[in-house]
Write a structure and sequence with these properties.
Distance between the termini: 23 Å
Low-confidence stretches: none
Shape: elongated
Strand content: under 5%
Number of strands: 0
Number of helices: 2
Largest sheet: none
Order of helices and strands: HH
């Protein structure tokens, strides 16, 4: 590994920034739900599958 991934840029680059926007909305909704109901906790999971990238020449 030559250098660590810039996670902020990586998330913002995925799907043209749509993923970052949706993730922000989901996290806000989960936090609001957990705040409104102190007996429940909210959970947000993100799974990423990484594979070989084909580079265009």
């Amino acid at each position: 590994m030559s250098h660590p991934t810039d996670v902020t840029r990586f998330i913002e680059d995925l799907d043209g920034g749509v993923l970052a926007e949706r993730l922000g909305k989901v996290l806000s909704h989960a936090a609001a739900s957990a705040t409104d109901n102190s007996k429940k906790k909210a959970k947000v999971s993100v799974a990423l599958t990484v594979g070989e990238l084909a580079l265009a020449v």
